[in-house]
Amino acid sequence: MQHLRLRERESYSLFRRQYLQLLNPDSLAFPSSDCLRSESFQSLIYGSIFKPGVLPYPPQARYQLRVLKELVLRVEKSIVDPEEDEVSNELLSHLGILLASPLLPEAASAQQKSYVTYTLPSEPQSLRERGESFTSQDELTLTLLESRSLISALGTTGLRTWEAALHLGAYLSLSAEGRGFIRGKRVLELGSGTGFLSILCAKYLGSAQVLATDGDPGVVEMLETNFFLNGLDSDREHVGASVLKWGWALMGRVLETKGESRTWDVALGADVTYDSTVIPCLISTLRDLFDIFPEIEILISATIRNAETFEAFISNCRKCPTTGTISSLESSV
Fold it and tell me: How many Å apart are CA 238 and CA 235, to the nearest integer?
């Protein structure tokens, strides 16, 4: 990173993280006028965000265009002395290329899958344990191919990462208790969707084994793509994906691999309590897990969209006789 003051580095880093996570342009934390007025700051933004080829998995062109138009407008507004300050030729040139490029209509673009890169909110624990210093190159990132629409063209909500998964991921990464849930453990994820939590556990949190499951075969197929994007496609002994329909008898890779029985220490679920109609099936699966793996711990993260639905889940959990523990992390939208 170019030589920047601390405030400029923080502003740049936040903007870049939010941009790669495809936050709505209206919600992006654009750098201040003082930062944007700087020629070197504009050069940094172009060279590390917008320059063609600099990002291995860049956002869609339409998203780039929306963000860059607003960025250029803000740079223009930041100019105090037209003799000294100006908009970077590189940014203007790239804006011109995007404006001249054929783009899908907004509705069609919303159904297209996009690369989304998430940056975890902490320095790597492994570096701290080795006594090494942390740099921006050490950022922990996950890149996923997602559908950003609420319901994809395939009719599923499982092709995007939801808030509860991000909250649970932060808990598992930031807290000693959270890291202790995963390190050295065999982890089963329910309703994996994009695989954010499974990939996090396999790539950064030191899990012994991870199996990401979902009830939708199309979603499970997409999990393989996201494993590849995060360098996990060749690690089949450590991480895998399988169809698991709640309420159905547990079978296949959940119970065995290569003819040998499996044991799971931890089960994770994020945003799995949003639909009251599936809660009985989910509870049935949780009960089966406790029956087969009596020592398993189950950690559920839920964004409460409907208090009655979530309370129905908690009530059913209390009625479920187990020897294990069901914990819940609650976050309001």
Answer: 6
Q: Tell me the HSE value of 323 on the side-chain side, using a 13 A CA sphere.
A: 7
| Residues 157 and 192: beta-carbon distance below 8 Å | no
What residues are paired with 300 via a beta bridge?
A: 269, 328
Helix (H) or strand (E) holding 325: strand 325-332
Res 152 pLDDT > 90: no
Q: Is the pLDDT of residue 306 over 90?
A: no
Reference 31, options 70, 86, 3; nearest CA is 70
Which amino acid belongs to residue 133?
A: S
> Could you tell me the strand order of the sheet in which 239-243 lies?
239-243, 209-214, 186-190, 266-270, 297-304, 325-332
Whose tokens are 């406790």? That residue is: 290
The answer for residues whose C-beta is within 8 angstroms of residue 326's C-beta and 6 or more apart is 286, 298, 300, 317, 320
Crossing angle of helices 196-203/163-174, nearest 10°? 20
Pseudo-torsion of CA 13, 19, 21, 27, nearest 10°? 100
pLDDT in tens, 267-291: 999 999 988 899 999 999 999 999 9
Helices (H), 33-87: 33-36, 39-45, 61-78
- For 48, 79, 188, 204, 208, the CA distances from 44, given in Å and listed in that order, are 6, 18, 41, 28, 39
Question: What single-letter amino acid sits at 193?
Answer: G
